[in-house]
What we know:
Two copies of one chain form a homodimer. By secondary structure, chain A is an all-alpha fold. Chain A has a single domain (12-186), classed as Ferritin, CATH 1.20.1260. Chain A has seven helices and no strands. The interface between A and B is medium-sized, with 32 and 32 residues.
Amino acid sequence: MLGLLTPTPAGWIDAALSNFDAVLLDHFHCELKAASNGTALVARYPMFPRLVRTLSDLAREELEHVQQVHDELQRRGIRAHPPGEDPYAIALRKSTQGDTPKSEYGALLDRLSIGALIEARSCERFALLKEHAPTEALRAWYAELFASEARHYRLFASLAEEAAGEELARKRLAQLAEREAEIVERLPLEPRVH
Amino acid sequence: MLGLLTPTPAGWIDAALSNFDAVLLDHFHCELKAASNGTALVARYPMFPRLVRTLSDLAREELEHVQQVHDELQRRGIRAHPPGEDPYAIALRKSTQGDTPKSEYGALLDRLSIGALIEARSCERFALLKEHAPTEALRAWYAELFASEARHYRLFASLAEEAAGEELARKRLAQLAEREAEIVERLPLEPRVH
């Protein structure tokens, strides 16, 4: 699915449903990180007009999702707290170190590829949540988010191709997808989005 | 104006109009920093529900402004580049070091107070630009941004009062406003928003 090389381990959905409040709190911070990452890319790479336009749109959409998750946290009476570590994102970023392509926009290519993979993995897990989340309203909401993450995956992949050329971008994304698969298989199953 | 203790030096508007492209490019990065700062505050202090709601709205609005400034940069054929140093914001943040109030949310109080002062100073300068910017369309646009910055000033000030109590928040804002005035009088006049 969307270039991912391994499905989410079978036990993840049970871990998620065992503490759905924790999943929502992690989801809240995932949306914030996505908004923050989109904004940071616009600031660092404003010489790409399509990137500026599309990633500032993306950041605004992620902030709308932040508010939706926050509404759900409030309905459930959950007091949010600052984020803990994000082992998945840390491992993924670390996996690029040492062989970032040496082209002019190699660092941008890696950031966009990581962005694409995170969106793809979220999308794949929201596909499970749109079937199994505990209420009808939540299942409908995850169906919307699923579609949004799929769009975002395609956006990051196409921005990577624009910045680094189609051949190099596809090659690098496939290479990082292998590392992403190893990370997903290695990390413990926990009630969080990633 | 809005708690500021010194007006912008008389020569600033001439410096700004002498290189309006540079002002726009700085403005682009100011809006991005404001969006990024709002998002970061939501992530760090999600235990304040009103802060989450209002600052995620603020970040979305700032991202809309990012797109508006970017449209104007494109109309003028200006190729944007990553931000340089921001001596005003750096000096302002540095000015809080050493005597941040020791209450539970002292660090938050300082971040919100700095936010309020930056919005107030932008507002004051947009009041000059809404009179003197080079085209009618730009003057109308700065009039809108002027109103928006004034709202944001009041929002930051009220969130500070909510987090730290009215008395402490007002006292700290007045203290930091003194330091802000010194910084504004000390910095060279350049074609930038701050």
